Amino acid sequence: MDKNIIRQMVLHEVSNRADASLFLDLPNRIHRSNSQYIQPLNKDIAAVFDEKKNKFFQHGKCSRWLLFDENKTVIGRIAAFINHNYAQDQPTGGIGFFECIDNTHAANFMFDECKRWLQREGMQAMDGPINFGERVNWWGLLMEGFDAPLYGMNYHPPYYQRLFEQYGFKVYFYQDCYSMNLAQTLPEKFYRIKDKIESDDGYRVIPFCKSRLEQFALDFTSIYNKSWEIHGEGKTMEENEAIKLFSEMKAVIDEKAIWFAYHHDQPIACWLNLPDLNYHFKALKGKFSLVHILRFLWLKKFRPNPKLVGILFGVIPEYQTKGIDAFMVVSALSVLKSQTQYSHYEMQWIGDFNPKMINFAKNMGAARTRRLATYRYLFDQNQIFHRHRMLG
């Protein structure tokens, strides 16, 4: 039963700074009684909707709305977007940045508007909650593991699952996060694989080096594009995008936390990890002015971060059955354990359509600690619903 009776609702498209400010502020009210909630940096959310900063506007479009009740109080927000490079079985748009009071009618009011908007653009389905951007951030609805979120991870009250499913959204794929104590010993077979591969002089594993940032970014582009092309959906990255990405991350990169594997100098795998940014961002309350930047740098220096977050793990297809993953992990962990302060590791998320990566996480000794879900709603409810295809 809905906890709030609403006599009148008005959906207003975000069109100015005042609207944008209300859009940013609503999650703080929705989550105000939850001490685990950590506010994202306002600038990062705002950048998603900035045509000058978000490359996805080059091949898509976006709109967002605020939902007001009869007292002119904001009770919901949502965004809808089209990415023409998002290749699916049918033309599929996206919705995201959903926040809403615990009220089915309010949620449905917003979902209906997104559906109409996307239908006018020729879409036949909508996925959500997803990002108008890469899957690494703001993707999926939190269903399990309501501890403090990782940076860039959606965080939702448990009742959001009911709001999505009552409307008719179905799970397209689950997104599972796995965690482990870095002090634990890996299975013996990992070390045997590492010794065998290491005996071949053609293989090497090296950590990231900021002074060679551009070359590592180019190697990352090569690995990323070869590894993720099997996913379909038009997932590729340009070299200049990778250089920009690593340059933007430079201030928070720990060189001992990013590793690359090579065979005869060909980049074949990478393991990209970052310190848990929310460990320090929590104190900034979404702000990132000069004063907040200085505070962040002070916290970073004097309050050691114990948690490492796995952002991306990739091995190019022709090396995926050669044990390169174990070779790289064992080599990297020997340094992480002996030369860094990290004690806990959590992988950002792994799709349930990727059983090889899930098995690898479990073989490392990691356990599932969170679950998110990407939902899909087919506009033609007579159409057969298909889950995300399995990889491999």
Global geometry: globular
Structural class: alpha+beta
Strand content: 25-35%
Q: Rg, please? A: 22 Å
Average pLDDT metric? 93
The arrangement of helices and strands along the chain is: EHHEEEHEEHEHEHHEEHHEHEEHE
Strand element count: 14
> Which residue ranges are poorly predicted, with pLDDT under 50 across at least 5 consecutive positions?
none
CA distance, first residue to last residue: 43 Å
What does this structure look like?
The chain is an alpha+beta fold. 33% of the residues lie in helices and 26% in strands. It is built from eleven helices and 14 strands. Strands 1, 2, 3, 4, 5, 6, 7, 8, 9, 10, 11, 12, 13 and 14 form a 14-stranded mixed sheet that branches. α10 links the parallel β11 and β12. α3 crosses α4, α5 packs across α10 and α6 crosses α7. The longest helix has 17 residues. The mean pLDDT is 93.
Summed up, what is this model?
The chain is an alpha+beta fold and 392 residues long. The protein has helices at 17-30, 42-48, 104-120, 159-167, 188-198, 213-228, 239-249, 278-281, 290-302, 324-339, 355-364, and strands spanning 10-13, 60-68, 74-83, 92-100, 125-128, 141-144, 170-181, 203-207, 258-263, 266-275, 307-315, 344-347, 350-351, 367-378. It starts with 9 loop residues before the first strand and ends in a 14-residue tail after the last strand.
